[in-house]
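thread from #wetlab-drylab

HS: before we spend reagent money on co-crystallization trials with adenosine-5'-diphosphate, can we at least see a predicted complex? here's what I'd submit
DV: go for it
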Amino acid sequence: MLKMKDVSKIYRTDTVQTHALRGFSLEVEDGEFVSVTGPSGSGKTTFLNIAGLLEELTSGTYELDGRDISALNDKERSRVRNEKIGFIFQSFNLIPELNVFDNVDVPLRYRGFDAKERERRIMGGLERGGLASRPKHFPSQLSGGPQQRVAIARALAGEPRFLLADEPTGNLDTQMADSVLDLLDEINRSGTTIIMVTHELTLADRARRNLFVRDGEIHHGPPELHFAAAANA
Ligand code: ADP
């Protein structure tokens, strides 16, 4: 379970100070599928990066599976991140020189699994992503939808408890976006907790809980409500 209390994040440069998150409190239970929407620059990616231990918070508390994250050193943070969290990005982040199999293998190599265990995880991930027949393809031989499926397979091969997705369908046409959402839905039903940032309301609606972020603050409830309120303001 993920629990943030009164989290703030301030980015400071020489001349400006940006309050990317303020008073951000949230609990996500095991097995939830939560969408996060909000205008550009509202703090969605910052939230996801803090949740995924890619960035540190400025103040407040963050517990993941009962562990106080701010008490961990860099090495422990990396370990928790690698073991518990899978990431999916808008731009897929595949390595063009590596085939599908080797792309999925990349994060597993950091975790010290032997070759047999890695192969089991890789083929398991590809199977779930519907790519078991294409391990030797290179990213350039696949269209956007299947490329994102490789990225999802790579995340799943880590057998994460939490899947964090930042605009996972932002580079896909509607049909491919739908099929990626179908896959995320299936992954969630088999027990993985998912938090997905998207600005597409139709996709956000497919999550089982919706959060809306504006000016670094969190609002609960259906995103339509908040977009309508913002438009009328
Ligand atoms: P969103 O994902 O909703 O578009 P972000 O979380 O990317 O919003 O950004 C929230 C605010 O924090 C924005 O004002 C953005 O310019 C600022 N910001 C994000 N990352 C950085 C950074 N690394 N350095 C300085 N400011 C940043």
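DV: The chain has a mean pLDDT of 92.
HS: ok that's useful, forwarding to the group
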